[in-house]
Q: What sequence folds into this?
């Protein structure tokens, strides 16, 4: 297959490297309007053919796949043009800036039997795949809450707020791990710089008395990437900055006993052992490339497809509306 990567800034070089390293890829092309980015890619990957002309890139190289790593507002027009020219597409998160745009791209792809891969990278990490395995096996019991903190100093985006930038990761992970319907969303935050919120708290209410909370922040003095998942049997902590013990499972919980005639419930706390399962260290992006290529060859939807991207965009839209309206509760349809 021949692959073209449009957008060679922050994430584009990682895509170029991983496509080049896959034996199924015959040739990689790159496109960016910034000549300095073309020079950088040429110095790192001289085998990549480069251009600053989108039309030449789209029509001139007989590409099978176009990977889009540009600002989110440009995802829709670039993806639409690629699909209409018969290309499978790889789109960085978030998929689009509007759910209507995502729906249109999905419809075009379905009509033309083309595949959409949305780069929810964390789904392919060893840690998240291991958590999925643990949850599916029922080790934690029924999930009661999902609490995530994703904070750091920068990188500020000039086109979206911190919800669209950082929370998109957490929402995609949540959707992959917890298969419950989202009922309502509320978000609070503030913009201290420019017009985009740099700190936000998002609350997501699921059916079945389950709750998720995200704290995202571009202006934290320290970097934190931590998730707590509380189940009726056990509890789990995922710290992505840990090198050797990213996942820790605690045999801890609460039992409430009440007896007839006793006004106050009797609360018992269980604190048992902790263990840390082994996590695969294979680079997530390389696994994403393999999954997309296999999906094309097998004519099936990839693990992170347009429909998954659409679900994430709908939640982001609801959170964005809520934060602009001082935490108004928004129902998800």
A:
């Amino acid at each position: 297959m021949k692959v073209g990567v449009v957008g060679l800034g922050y994430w584009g070089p990682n895509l170029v490297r991983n496509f080049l390293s896959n034996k199924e890829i015959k040739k990689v092309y790159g496109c960016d309007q910034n000549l300095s980015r073309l020079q950088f890619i040429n110095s790192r990957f001289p085998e990549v053919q480069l251009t600053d002309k989108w039309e030449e890139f789209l029509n001139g190289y007989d590409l099978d796949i176009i990977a889009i790593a540009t600002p989110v507002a440009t995802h829709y027009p670039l993806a639409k043009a690629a699909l209409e020219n018969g290309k499978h597409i790889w789109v960085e998160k978030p998929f689009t800036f509007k759910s209507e745009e995502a729906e249109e791209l999905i419809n075009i792809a379905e009509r033309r039997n083309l595949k959409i891969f949305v780069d929810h990278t964390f789904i392919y990490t060893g840690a998240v795949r291991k958590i999925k395995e643990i949850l599916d096996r029922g080790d934690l019991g029924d999930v009661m809450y999902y609490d995530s903190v994703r904070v750091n100093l920068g990188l500020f985006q000039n086109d979206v707020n911190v919800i669209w930038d950082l929370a998109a990761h957490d929402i995609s992970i949540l959707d992959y791990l917890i298969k419950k319907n989202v009922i309502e969303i509320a978000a609070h935050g503030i913009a201290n710089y420019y017009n985009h919120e740099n700190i936000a708290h998002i609350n997501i209410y699921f059916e079945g008395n389950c709750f998720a909370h995200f704290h995202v922040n571009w202006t934290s003095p320290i970097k934190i990437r931590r998730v707590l998942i509380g189940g009726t049997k056990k509890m789990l902590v995922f710290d992505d900055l840990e090198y050797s013990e990213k996942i820790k499972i605690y045999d801890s919980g609460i039992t409430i006993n009440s007896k007839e005639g006793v006004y106050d419930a009797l609360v018992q706390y269980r604190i048992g052992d902790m263990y840390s399962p082994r996590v695969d260290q294979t680079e997530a992006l390389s696994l994403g490339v393999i999954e997309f290529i296999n999906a094309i060859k097998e004519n099936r939807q990839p693990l992170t497809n347009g429909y998954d991207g659409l679900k994430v965009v709908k939640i982001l839209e609801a959170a964005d509306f809520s934060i602009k309206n001082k935490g108004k509760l928004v129902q998800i349809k």
